[in-house]
Design a protein that fits this description.
By secondary structure, the chain is α/β, with parallel strands linked by helices. Helix content is about 50%, strand content about 10%. The N and C termini lie far apart (about 75 Å).
């Protein structure tokens, strides 16, 4: 045990073995020891947990630590037990404990042995726990991951909103709230909701100089790009974040099929599997975790070397928090996000049906992320500005935009126009509206407000949208424009902005990056092939094969499959099945001539085939495919099949297309006959027979919009199954 006269420094050395505190840790702990409410904003890796663990060990009574994840609680309790001589110094209560284990925990608390009790907010609100805790001396309450309280945060959890009333019921004591990421809006929300508006606030810098930030355009080859990156960083630990559970499982399977030690992690998995996976990652039995954002909150692994975002995150808060898991030891940390504006539209679509206020918040957060992705300004500067921190370094030297800077152009006149436009519409509108106003777009809202009659309307009609985006974002960074977060992002002109209007000075900007929409359907897209000559030869071979069987060329092999052949050079039927969209049936039926052609070409041109870079797709990527095929054999309604597999109908169509494109035959006549008449089916069939590509947009155009996209895709599945397989 510690001597009574020991200093904080002595206690730190005794319990944790550190010689000195990090940043503001000592001041935070002193504040809490004096019984004051405390708010701590500290980036991941800054040592937040020590700020409540050490005072808990020093104060009389038990500290209640409210934490959102069971796996995290277990890790922290194990860590505290490891530094102490007593096993009962820290405990947790949650749904994973049996009745007898909970009784043992309560007994240790009542005997005064337990200094830290970890609970999830759900457990804290249970009546039997509230009644028990009323009889315990509470030293203080620590609310970890406090951003979960705010609907403006990236991980809103409604049950966090009930913490203050429960504290009142159990018995008041000082409160310390801790988070690794929060804007001014979120900070205010947390303090108000916890009833600690007068708390002493400690805010550390958000700058993590060792992290490298990069945004890459998301293309059809994203899986291949990720595999290539991981292979180049062999043996390093990394996390890949995807938005959907389905994508997490698919990508993890693809990585494993390519000899990468990877595992999936999402909230839909059994908690014991999640726990074991996290353990495997920490103990380096696996290198890469593919996860939804359910993974990583508070994970204690200092040497994660890369964090990849497969999908655009829903907010910059979430992005910062997730990238913050890289390089916590101060070493290398690469943060790469793949971005396409198409993903943004998908996320906005998912918001439909939610309450209007929630939609407004969600859309504003998405726009901030899109602005970050599309901007050519220093990524670090943009991130820090989002969190209210000024970063005045000209070139950070550790992000893609700073390492490959674009030429700056003079934007003084455009900024003047933008400031005048914001004032003309009475500082009462968001960025999209202001840009429409500047460009002279007669939108319904502009006409309703009669803003088309104003002198400034259309003053910037000759300037591109992405240039206006760049002007307004840079105007914010330089302090001329501010966004009113309280009112969902209305643009305001600052004092500095008004001064600039009176006497403009030089204002340089970099035009935003152009991220074109990509099309991720397998049959579309430009060629990213390694060998253009072979590609053309394979296209000719496909034409011959198609003519021989009287089929459209795409029915033999998709464009994407031909592209992959011209990049990966498969020369056996077995290798051919590793090509996207080529199953065993298709390889057997059409593959022999293609393999012979590629083999001949490689020999004649002395080509060394990139066997090590071959991307193997996963055979029967998920149980869902087997379920779908079996359900169709039993003639189950396809709407029901989608529902049973947790899919939207268009996702089921994705799966059906993948099944028939790879050479498996399925009979969906029973469903088609229910939903469409014979003439309609024949009209679509007629188009598919004539078409060279089977392209949906082309079909919609030619069929004069008589059929929905889903109807055409459904009949295309039937057509492919009958004609190609």
């Amino acid at each position: 045990m510690m001597n009574k006269g020991a200093t904080l420094q002595d206690s730190l050395k005794y319990y944790f073995g550190f010689d000195s505190f990090k940043g503001e840790q000592e001041a935070i702990i002193q504040n809490l020891l004096q019984g004051k409410d405390t708010f701590v904003l500290m980036p991941t890796g800054g040592g937040k947990s020590l700020c409540y663990q050490l005072p808990a060990l020093l104060l009389e009574g038990t500290a209640i630590v409210i934490s959102p994840l069971i796996a995290l609680m277990k890790n922290q309790v194990d860590a505290i037990k490891y530094i102490s001589e007593e096993d009962n110094i820290a405990h947790f209560i949650n749904s994973s404990l049996s009745k007898s284990m909970i009784e043992q925990v309560k007994s240790d608390i009542l005997s005064g042995k337990t200094k830290l009790l970890y609970v999830a907010p759900e457990s804290l609100t249970k009546e039997e726990n509230v009644d028990f805790l009323k009889s315990v001396k509470i030293s203080f309450y620590a609310i970890d991951e406090a951003h979960c309280i705010s609907e403006w945060g990236h991980d809103f959890r409604p049950e966090y909103r009930r913490i203050r009333p429960i504290i009142q019921e159990i018995g008041t004591a000082p409160v310390i709230a801790l988070t690794a990421t929060a804007t001014d809006k979120v900070r205010g929300d947390i303090k108000k909701n916890l009833g600690i508006v007068d708390a002493t606030e400690f805010k550390s810098s958000f700058n993590r100089p060792n992290l490298y930030y990069e945004v890459r355009q998301k293309t059809k080859n994203i899986d291949k790009d990720i595999i290539k990156y991981i292979k180049q960083n062999s043996g390093k630990s990394g996390i890949i974040y995807c938005l959907s559970r389905k994508k997490v499982e698919e990508l993890a399977d693809i990585l494993k099929a390519n000899d990468i030690k990877a595992a999936a992690y999402h909230a839909g998995m059994d908690s014991s599997v999640r726990s074991a996976t996290q353990d495997d990652f920490i103990k380096e039995r696996i290198d890469v975790i593919v996860a939804t954002i359910a993974f990583g909150m508070g994970i204690d692994k200092p040497d994660v070397r890369f964090v990849i975002h497969y999908d655009i995150p829903k907010s910059l808060e979430g992005y910062y928090q997730e990238t913050g898991r890289a390089g916590r030891d101060g070493g290398e940390g690469k943060c790469i996000a793949f971005y396409a504006s198409k993903d943004l539209q998908k996320l906005e679509k998912f918001m439909e049906g939610k309450p209007v206020a929630e939609q407004d918040i969600g859309r504003q957060l998405l726009r901030e992320t899109a602005a970050y992705c599309e901007s050519s300004v220093c990524r670090r500067k943009l991130l820090l500005h989002y969190f209210g921190e000024q970063y005045d370094v000209e070139n950070c030297g550790n992000c893609d935009n700073c390492l490959h800077p674009k030429k700056k152009v003079d934007g003084t006149d455009n900024l003047v126009l933008a400031l005048k436009a914001i004032l003309a519409v009475k500082e009462n509108f968001k960025m999209d509206y202001v840009i429409d106003f500047l460009r002279g777009n007669e939108t319904e809202t502009i006409l309703v407000h009669k803003h088309d009659k104003l002198e400034e309307f259309g003053a910037g009609a000759d300037v591109e949208v992405k240039m206006w985006n760049a002007v307004i974002h840079q105007g914010q960074l330089d302090g001329y424009i501010e966004k009113d977060v309280e009112n969902y992002g209305l643009l305001k002109v600052t004092k500095l902005g008004k001064k600039f209007l009176k006497k403009p000075t030089e204002f340089l900007i970099v035009e935003d990056n152009d991220f074109e929409d990509y099309d991720d359907s397998m049959e579309q897209g430009g060629t990213g092939v390694a060998d253009e000559m072979l590609y053309k030869m394979l296209l000719d071979q496909r034409k011959k094969e198609a003519a021989k069987h009287d089929l459209p060329p795409y029915v033999v092999f998709l464009d994407a499959s031909i592209e992959a052949m011209a990049t990966l050079y498969p020369i056996t039927l077995e290798e051919l099945q590793n090509i996207p969209g080529v199953g065993a049936g298709k390889a057997k039926r059409y593959g022999k001539e293609f393999c012979a052609l590629i083999k001949r070409y490689c020999e004649e041109n002395e080509i060394v085939r990139p066997a090590d870079m071959r991307v193997r797709t996963v055979a029967n990527r998920s149980k869902a495919k087997v379920n779908i095929i079996q359900s169709i054999d039993r003639k189950i309604d396809l709407e029901e099949v989608a529902k049973a597999n947790g899919m939207e109908f268009d996702e089921l169509l994705d799966e059906l297309e993948a099944i028939v494109y790879s050479g498996t035959k399925i009979n969906i006549d029973y469903f088609v006959e229910e939903v469409m008449d014979e003439d309609s089916v024949e009209d679509i069939y007629d188009f598919l027979r004539r078409s060279e590509t089977g392209d949906i947009d082309e079909a919609m155009k030619e069929l004069d919009g008589d059929f929905s996209e889903e109807e055409i895709r459904l009949i295309r599945v039937k057509f492919m199954s009958e004609m190609a397989n």
